[in-house]
Every structure is written in C-alpha cells, then in structure tokens.
C-alpha cells in the first residue's frame, strides 16, 4: 500500500510549519523522517493522518485520495499513526489498551453484546491470546494489569506502538518510537519492525536516535523549517553538508 | 415512620436509576450530560399524559423511553461535535428547552399547573398495606437488572472503547474508531433510562409539574454519583442513598434548632447538605466506592 504525500502546506500565521512537502512511502517501504526540533515532522504526521487539515496539498493511499476523510476512516483504510507524546488510555490496563485497538470487534456494538454473547466471548478469547503475544514481545507482559497511566514514559511509548500494531494497519507512522525506551529493546523493536516490513507493512518513522534509525530504514527524508532538504539512502543523507548545517543550525 | 422510610426507599430506588444512567455517561464514557432531567421529564410527562387519557401504564413507560431515546439521537449527532464544556452547556440548555416546552404546550401538559391524578402503579392493590412494598420490590428488581446490564457493558469490548474515549478521544480516532458512534449510543441508553425513572416518579408522586424538572435534579444526581465514586456502578446505588440521607436528615434540623426561624431554616438545610458534600469530597474525593473510573 503506497502512501503519496503531495505538496502539503500548513501555516500558522506567517510561519509555514510544513512548506510544500512531497514524498512517497512505497508499498512495504521502510522510510525515516528526521529534522531538528520544530521542523514540522509531527505536524506532517497530523496532516497525513487527517488530524489536521492542510492549507493545500493532498494525501492519497494507493492512488485513492484521502483528503475528504477523517482520522478514523484513514485508520480503517490501513493508515495508522502513533503520537510523540504518548496518548495512552490512562485508566485502562495495558492489556485493555491493546485490546481496544483491535478492529472489527463484534462486542463493540451493544446489539451483538446482548444478542450474540457466545460470539463476543470467542472473539475476546482469540484477541486476548494475540494481545498476550504482543505484550510478551514488547516486554509489557509484566505490567499487563497495570493502568497505562502509571507506566514510565518508555513503557507508554511501547503501548502506543503495540496499539498501532494491533490495528492491523498496512502503513504505520511512528513518531519517535524509541524515546525513553532502553537500548536493548530498541534493537528488538527494530528487528520486529523489519520483520513486519518483510511481510509487506510500510513504515514511516520519525526518530531522533539517528544511529538506530539509519540502521532500520532504507530511505531517509530530512525536514528543516517545514521544507524537505534531502532524501535518499541514510548514509548519503547523513553525509550531506546541508543536513549537517540544519542540525548544527538547530542546535545553536 | 415506616411509611416515611418506605417512601424514602422508593425515591432512592427511582433516583438510583438516574444515577446509574449518569454513571454510564460520565463515569464510564466521560460525557458531561448536564441535561439528565430533560429526559426524566419526557418520561414523567409521557406517562402522565397517556395514563390520564386512559392508555395503559406500559404505554406511558414505552412512549417516554422511546421519545427520550429518539430525542437523544440528534443531540448525539450535533452536540457531540462540541467540546466537552460546550457539550455540558448544550445539554443543560436542552433540558431547559424541554421544561419551557412543557410550560408553553398548555393543551397537552396543562402548563405550569401540571397534571394531577396520575394513577398509582398497582392501583388495584391500593387498599393493601403492602402495595408500596410491591412497588419497592419492582423498583429494586429494575435497579438490579440495570446494574447487571451496566456491568455487562462496562466489562465488554464496548466498555473498553468508551473507557478509552473517556481517557483520550483522539487516540481512539487514531485507531480507526468513531467516538461519536459510541457516545451517541451511550447517550441514548442514558436517555431511555432517565425516562423510565421519570415514569416511575410520575406514577409514584401522582402528579407532574414543570417545577419537578429543574436543573437542580440533574445536579443532585451528579452529587450522588460523585459521592458514590465516579465510574463505580455499585457507587451509584450507595451514593444516591447517602445523598438522600443527607437531604432527608437535614429535615430534622428544625427539631434540633427550634429557635431558628423557618425561612432561615430552609437556607440552613441547603447549607448543611452543601457542607456535608464539601467535607465528603475533601476527605474522600474518590467517593464511597473508591478510585475514579476503575472497572
Ligand atoms: N497549533 C499551533 N499553533 C502555532 N504553531 C504551532 C502549532 N502547532 C505546532 N506549531 C509549531 O509548528 C512547528 C513544528 O512543530 P512540530 O511539527 O511539532 O515539530 P517537530 O515534530 O518536527 O519537532 C513548531 O515550531 C511549533 O511551535
Ligand atoms: Mg515532533
């Protein structure tokens, strides 16, 4: 499933937070997006997933325009994002956070809940097993019964990731998935992302851990003050003087 | 004294239905419905009008609940696009619209005079002393049924999603689910339940007037829910009971303080109830039944 981002512009007052941004995440692609703080990366995610409306430009999935659809519809079509600042369901347990992300549960309609209790129970059991596996993989199994609001920052990021994976999306946008996650787990998550990618799921990943990101993705795009300034294989992009300038400029 | 206690028990049982409905809406879903009493009023007046025109009691209950559910649907569609605080104000406004409509639709509702002579439930047994007991038993059974349904909802996939909506609506959307669909359904269930409570109330009190459906009722139900513990189904029952005990207990103040004038006493009663609530929320903010919104 290929995601085409075409000439997206979003301005707050005189400032163009994204300025004519275009690129494609090919079907089954593994693409990174970097840039200094405030470059507009998270805003771009919101534009792509329908949480913000662009001033101009468009987004399409496999050639079908998404411009008139909201975030929930885009997610149902297989385009799902995570948030930089985790939006865990704080009063729900970790297990329930992940279970809530599964699509098409009969028990989510009141009719089926009371008329088809057998079916609801069977679906719940099957889903529960899938969630146990996901929690084991993300090392969340020990906190399965803990309300997600009580987790550490890194664990919340893992809940975000786990929920996105539970949706069965075909293209997943991860906003700084490694922030606060311990290094060993970062490598394991990267391995899992590669594995999912090998099965055809496309990823677009924002990440500040450039080393981890360049090992993961095959293509890297660089955003600076709303504009794309470079794109290509990670090694070449990171060697680009313009990219170095942007980062040094951002740091000064 | 027995009759008095029985009457209190019946009121508690009627209002517990409302508290359970609010708990579903606010406690479990995070919907700030400040217009509960509007749906309660629809139920009360549907029963009053139909049964005083010779229709059976069941028709009043059914019509009230159906009307309330139907009324909740467009509210869901329109009002749920509002931010939480505007939603609260919108629902409060709508309940006032219901009251004003009742006052002005004089032919149907008799306006401010209200409708007297609503038949009691189980009126054929009127002469028997156990008639109110039978009513109480029916109400307790109804409450039990509602508690079971609420439990089933709270512990289901549906309950999981409404809990997620309460915690973070945007994230629910990001996962491909429409909060509006869930909220509308919750609002409709809450509306139907409030109308049923209204029908019971009309039959028990025997008359309806617009004065019975002021926002004060809504806020008392909010107090009951908070006292019991927001999000706790068992809390809805105990909170309603505690609130009623506070309000009724304050009635005995005149006996304790005979030197206070009766107008000052009316204010003092409100003050005492309010003070008790403040103290309670300061010293037990999680309510009788514990932590907020844990299932
Ligand atoms: N609602 C808003 N109003 C005004 N400016 C905003 C708003 N949201 C984001 N911005 C600005 O847009 C820029 C890009 O933000 P963001 O997309 O979060 O950057 P990044 O994720 O690359 O760090 C920042 O300068 C931020 O201050
Ligand atoms: Mg960001």
Task: List descriptors.
heterodimer, A: 252 residues, alpha/beta, Rossmann fold, 2 domains, 4-stranded antiparallel β-sheet, 23% strand, B: 295 residues, mainly alpha, binds adenosine-5'-diphosphate, binds magnesium ion, Branched-chain amino acid ABC transporter ATPase (chain A)
Plain-language structure description:
The complex is a heterodimer of chains A (about 250) and B (about 300). Chain A starts with a strand and ends with a helix. Helix content of chain A is about 40%, strand content about 25%. With about 250 residues, chain A is an alpha/beta fold. The model of chain A has no long low-confidence stretch (mean pLDDT about 95). The radius of gyration of chain B is 19 Å and the shape is globular. The model of chain B has no long low-confidence stretch (mean pLDDT about 90). The interface of A and B includes residues 70, 76, 82, 103 and 113 of A. Bound molecules: adenosine-5'-diphosphate (ADP) and magnesium ion (MG).
